[in-house]
């Protein structure tokens, strides 16, 4: 008798763009919703260093806001960047 192959089927992961759209729609907009570096890195599927490079070197991200010592980008800033498609091609693929 042949043993059955019990490989689990991998769940299909959504594309980067679809994942970003879901995240942006899933939460209500609020002026104090801040995307910190780690969250933006997850959202764009890049490293935190890349996020800082996009800000400091490439100037594709606006300056982060600081609220109560927390540095990050507001939802409006992130939405504007996505709308203008200012990010490098590998980020929006």
Supply database-style keywords.
93 residues, mainly alpha, Multidrug-efflux Transporter Regulator, Chain: A, Domain 2, three-stranded antiparallel sheet, 3 strands, 11% strand, globular
What does this molecule look like?
- The chain has helices spanning 16-26, 37-44, 48-56, 75-84, 89-92, and strands at 34-35, 65-67, 70-74.
- With 93 residues, the protein is mostly helical.
- A three-stranded antiparallel β-sheet has the order 1-3-2.
- α2 packs across α3 (48-56).
- It starts with 15 loop residues before the first helix and ends with a helix.
- The chain is built from five helices and three strands.
- It has a single domain, classed as Multidrug-efflux Transporter Regulator, Chain: A, Domain 2 (Orthogonal Bundle).
- 45% of the residues lie in helices and 11% in strands.
List the helices and strands and how they pair.
Layout: H1 16-26, E1 34-35, H2 37-44, H3 48-56, E2 65-67, E3 70-74, H4 75-84, H5 89-92
Helix pairs in contact: 2-3
Please estimate the helix content: 40-55%
C-alpha Rg (nearest Å): 17 Å
Q: What value does the average pLDDT take? A: 77
Point out poorly predicted stretches. none
Principal-axis shape equals globular
Euclidean distance between termini CA atoms: 47 Å
Major sheet details: 3 strands, antiparallel
From the 3D structure, determine the CATH topology: Multidrug-efflux Transporter Regulator, Chain: A, Domain 2
CATH classification class: Mainly Alpha
Number of helical segments with 4 or more residues = 5
